[in-house]
Amino acid sequence: MRTHYSANITSKLEDEIVLLCGWVHEKRNLGKVKFLVLRDREGFIQVTAKKGATDDEMLEVIDSISKESVIQVKGRVKLNQKAPNGLEINPEKIVLINSSESPLPLDVTGKVPADTDTRLNNRFMDLRKPKIASIFKIRSILINRAREYLGEKGFIEMCSPKIIASASEGGTDLFPISYFDREAFLAQSPQLYKQMMMATGLDKVYETTTYFRAEEHDTRRHLNEVSAVDLEMAFIEDEEDVMRVLEKLVCEMIKEASGCEKELSILDKKINNPTLPIKRITYDSALDLLAEKNKKITWGEDIDTEGEKLLGEVMQEKHNTEIYFITKYPLESKPFYTMPDDKKISRSFDLGYKGVEISSGSQRIHDPVLLKARINYHNLNPDNFEYYLKCFRYGMPPHGGFGLGIDRLLMQLLDLSIREVVYFPRDRHRLTP
Ligand code: AMO
Prior knowledge:
By secondary structure, the chain is of the alpha+beta class. The protein has two domains: 6-98, CATH 2.40.50.140; 124-420, Bira Bifunctional Protein, Domain 2 (BirA Bifunctional Protein, domain 2, 2-Layer Sandwich), CATH 3.30.930. Helix content is 28%, strand content 26%. The chain contains twelve helices and 16 strands. The strands form three sheets. An eight-stranded mixed sheet has the order 6-10-11-16-15-14-13-12, sandwiched between helices. A hairpin with a 2-residue loop joins strand 8 (176-179) and strand 9. Helix 4 crosses helix 6 (239-258) and helix 4 (130-152) runs antiparallel to helix 7 (261-267). The radius of gyration is 27 Å and the shape is elongated. It starts with 16 loop residues before the first strand and ends in a 20-residue tail after the last helix. The structure holds aspartyl-adenosine-5'-monophosphate. Aspartyl-adenosine-5'-monophosphate (AMO) binds next to strand 11, strand 15, strand 16 and helix 12.
């Protein structure tokens, strides 16, 4: 239906006939001259119809079209210093494809501000705003680069089930569903399945996946449906091997996003490219740094939201870095599958970015006896994990991996809240659209 997007109209096309499709962004009537601004995915173009030069029927069509209607314009490209891009279309034909009701539920021009709920309730229209669309163009580029990079590095894309029989990340935050005559759950992560893949011989896998978490958080960094890149790799010496893959992946993703010049300028944002290797600090030294700032965390506890934020500031101040690993967490605070380093410490890590955890991972236990003991220690029933434990009894290599939250990475990249960077976010209060 179209020959060009608005952004492809350049002075090289002067006097040529083009076909454009999009939405009526604005309309102006100056009597003898009528203007339409057509908006499409790539930008805007002015359509100028002059009395005398345009037949009367078409002028009437322009008068009758409501804002946000879908139109097709056939017209000639003309240079005009006064037009927004120095170019305009003189229409030969305007087809009203589908009209929009008015009043609009949301002002796409952004002149009338709307609160987050109104915007999310009308997300289809919110996404018509170039600013909002830019967030999702960057999101798409981020995920594509992750896939491409991991493919280049020999990782095989896997696909784990999203309907599962037992918890992988602790029992408290599962969404139960009915599965015929049995109870089942929505997957909190592909954790057990990506580990099981390590026993198959396909020893480097990843998945771009969805986590379902029934957490009752109501914050700017938590959702109940989350996107992530999950990865698992075998024949590792320790968690450092995994961290080296994660840091390169994240740097590649950030680099790709920082190249989205058009979108970043629309959003008025700047992205700093991190340098490798990413700074590593232990959990113990993170606690010391926080104590220096009068933030006390008892050894063994998770670093809370306030602590995470403060740590982000300290890392910037002291180490001039926005991104950092926190390593060697207390074993107590990590899930049952995490490899112990000694009795108290685990071979695990989190990746912090501007004061928010964007990824966590570890070396895993590959010895079935130790694994069963850890399941028992966590008061879980090994019988519920038989399908998983079985893989460890017939030749399981040492392995490890991580989960990288895509929503978290993007929100931190663009300094936005998590709801802004997800098409149709799911939180405690939101189940539609
Ligand atoms: P974890 O539970 O730490 O680890 O999740 C990994 C990453 O996923 C993101 N994330 C979330 N983002 C927004 N809202 C939430 N409710 C939420 N929950 C998690 C975060 C987090 O760092 N199986 C392990 C990973 C592994 O060891 O491979 C896991 O799921 O960015």
